[in-house]
């Protein structure tokens, strides 16, 4: 009986391992990046440059403000990154099997990345909504603040005040943004690993660092326009007549394009890139270290 249970566990672990490793690496990266993410959201909400936002937050709210929404950020990684990295690994493994074990061409990796991003975003959208609202709360007039105490309180209040489906408010742009980000992040990482390792002959550490850097840049460049629209949709409040400034993500995109032009979507790109790229890099580095540690202990 004991041997049978061990065999069952051994059969389950390879299937859940990519999901566990993905979530753990994403959560570790979030703990480091959370302050930069907070500054990025404030810039997108029109509070000024990175230096201005940082100075004002320190003066008016204290150091703790940089970690406001950390619980939601961790919950988001536990859902979103667990789902996207785990599903990407499973999809690419299936594709490699169908390709007779040969390396996948870039377009197939991109398709796997797009699919994994959509899956992850659907699972992680409620936590993402809670994170955006908690980060934006201090920018609202006192009477309009929601004052969520943590991510679970935010989710409870959203369901109680707005209904269950409100947890997926802005899910459309969230999914599109995740598809763009993951196409850039996942496909470019795998492709870069092959280039640095096989073509340039770099060692493991240099390969991971180089591929992570390329992955972070493409993830940022592909996703920021969608992230901008997503943030605007998720933080909007109705006016005195109960009307919202945007009817949806397409309306938001068109109004933004009309009022500010194409480059408006890249508001805060340097900070966004500084936020996204290191998070992507650290996620891959943490994932690599987790996998090495598991290999040492035979997992």
TrEMBL record:
<feature type="repeat" description="Solcar">
    <location>
        <begin position="17"/>
        <end position="94"/>
    </location>
</feature>
<dbReference type="InterPro" id="IPR050391">
    <property type="entry name" value="Mito_Metabolite_Transporter"/>
</dbReference>
<keyword id="KW-0999">Mitochondrion inner membrane</keyword>
<keyword id="KW-0813">Transport</keyword>
<feature type="repeat" description="Solcar">
    <location>
        <begin position="104"/>
        <end position="195"/>
    </location>
</feature>
<keyword id="KW-0496">Mitochondrion</keyword>
<dbReference type="InterPro" id="IPR018108">
    <property type="entry name" value="MCP_transmembrane"/>
</dbReference>
<keyword id="KW-0677">Repeat</keyword>
<protein>
    <submittedName>
        <fullName>Mitochondrial dicarboxylate/tricarboxylate transporter DTC</fullName>
    </submittedName>
</protein>
<keyword id="KW-0812">Transmembrane</keyword>
<dbReference type="InterPro" id="IPR023395">
    <property type="entry name" value="MCP_dom_sf"/>
</dbReference>
<dbReference type="GO" id="GO:0005743">
    <property type="term" value="C:mitochondrial inner membrane"/>
</dbReference>
<dbReference type="InterPro" id="IPR002067">
    <property type="entry name" value="MCP"/>
</dbReference>
<keyword id="KW-1133">Transmembrane helix</keyword>
<dbReference type="GO" id="GO:0022857">
    <property type="term" value="F:transmembrane transporter activity"/>
</dbReference>
<dbReference type="Pfam" id="PF00153">
    <property type="entry name" value="Mito_carr"/>
</dbReference>
<feature type="repeat" description="Solcar">
    <location>
        <begin position="203"/>
        <end position="293"/>
    </location>
</feature>
<comment type="similarity">
    <text>Belongs to the mitochondrial carrier (TC 2.A.29) family.</text>
</comment>
<keyword id="KW-0472">Membrane</keyword>
């Amino acid at each position: 009986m004991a041997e049978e249970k061990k065999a069952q566990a051994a059969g389950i672990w390879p299937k859940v391992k990519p999901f566990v490793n993905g979530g753990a690496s994403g959560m570790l990266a979030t703990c480091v990046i959370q302050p930069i993410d907070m500054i990025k959201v404030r810039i997108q909400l029109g509070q000024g440059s990175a230096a201005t936002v940082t100075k004002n937050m320190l003066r008016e709210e204290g150091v703790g403000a940089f970690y406001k929404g950390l619980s939601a950020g961790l919950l988001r990684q536990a859902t979103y990154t667990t789902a996207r990295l785990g599903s990407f690994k499973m999809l690419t493994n299936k594709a490699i099997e169908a390709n007779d074990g040969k390396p996948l061409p870039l377009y197939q990796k991109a398709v796997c990345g797009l699919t994994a991003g959509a899956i992850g975003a659907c699972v992680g959208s409620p936590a993402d909504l809670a994170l955006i609202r908690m980060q934006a709360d201090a920018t609202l007039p006192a009477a309009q603040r929601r004052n969520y105490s943590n991510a679970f309180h935010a989710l409870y209040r959203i369901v109680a005040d707005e209904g269950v489906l409100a947890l997926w408010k802005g899910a459309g742009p969230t999914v599109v943004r995740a598809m763009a980000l993951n196409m850039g992040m996942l496909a470019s990482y795998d492709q870069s690993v092959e280039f640095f390792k096989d073509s340039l002959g770099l060692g493991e550490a240099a390969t991971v660092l180089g591929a992570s850097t390329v992955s972070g840049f493409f993830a940022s460049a592909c996703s920021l326009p969608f992230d901008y629209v997503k943030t605007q949709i998720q933080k909007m409040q109705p006016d005195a007549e109960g009307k919202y400034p945007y009817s949806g993500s397409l309306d938001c995109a068109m109004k933004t394009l009309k009022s500010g032009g194409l480059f408006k979507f890249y508001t805060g790109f340097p900070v966004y890139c500084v936020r996204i790229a290191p998070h992507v890099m650290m996620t891959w580095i943490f994932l690599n270290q987790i996998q090495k540690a598991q290999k040492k202990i035979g997992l």
